[in-house]
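Friendly challenge for the regulars: who can give me the structure tokens for this chain first? No prize, just bragging rights.
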Amino acid sequence: MLKVNHLKAYIDSIDGIVKAVDDLTFSIGKGETIGIVGESGSGKSILAQSLIQLNPSPPVFYPQGEIQFEGRDLLKLSEKELCNIRGNEISMIFQDPLSSLNPIFKIGRQLVEAVRAHHRMTRRQAEVKALSLLKDVGISQPERCMKSYPHELSGGMRQRVMIAIALSGHPKLLIADEPTTALDVTIQAQILELLTRLQSKYGTSIIIITHDLGVVARLADRILVMYSGKIVEEGTAEDIFYRTSMPYTWSLLRAIPSLKLTLNDRLVSIPGQPPDLASPPQGCNFYPRCPFASPKCREAEPVLKEIGKGHRAACILDEETFESRKKELEKKESGGSMISNGQGSVTS
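First reply, four minutes later:
Bragging rights claimed.
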């Protein structure tokens, strides 16, 4: 359905050219769910908005690449052609529903406008459709919701409304950018369950972008791990969580809090900061923060290499060396409290 080929999305800033998305290639099939994870600043949101050309141009520009959606290169379409695709064929759920909804209009008016933008309907027909969409997303009193302003709804209710608006055109592809941010864990679980149910009902493909590894573990068929604008590992959830061969992915997994933590244990974190994308380090971008780095890591940038069926990682270490380095590090740190998070021993 969607194939991204060698996409680059750069930002022309006062500090120089920021390589926010740097040579990304991936695809998604019909009814498939892809999770894209990484730290803040890794380029996830720029990538998401690039897929439907929502980034302001300038300062964002695309020196290279293709975004093929059912045979059409979205980078070559006019604004009018893109408007026909947005909402009708590709929709997006944004990170903050309160800033995405208009605070001075009631939910009903905003949802009816979205429905009529994608379907030839009278206002009465659109209202019936809007009520049906609100029921689909699990709102128990849709009539009351239609008459409410955004600030009168809870965070979970607003997110459900945003999902209803995104589904109003019956899109083939749904891009969810941090859909559970700022929601408590109970509401997060409900939103994730809702996305799964709606995908089953409509056959929609989903790209879910998050920094929460638990979210992609539950939803995604495949996971892309991004760091400094690049894909550094790609595979199934099982590949990423149990057979990772990339130090950055392993570091992210170590940082997941464990239920076995006590008051005396410290949380694990990745040392240092993500690189300046206007002036990235030589060689591997993760080199300055990598616990297994060697002088060879500064010589050349690693490329994604096949390490299993559908499993690729960008690291010069082979699987055997990577496993031995992990054991050496854990042994060295064994003076601390050993915390297990499902990835073997983790030292705080």
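The radius of gyration is 22 Å. The longest helix spans residues 185-202. Your move, everyone else.
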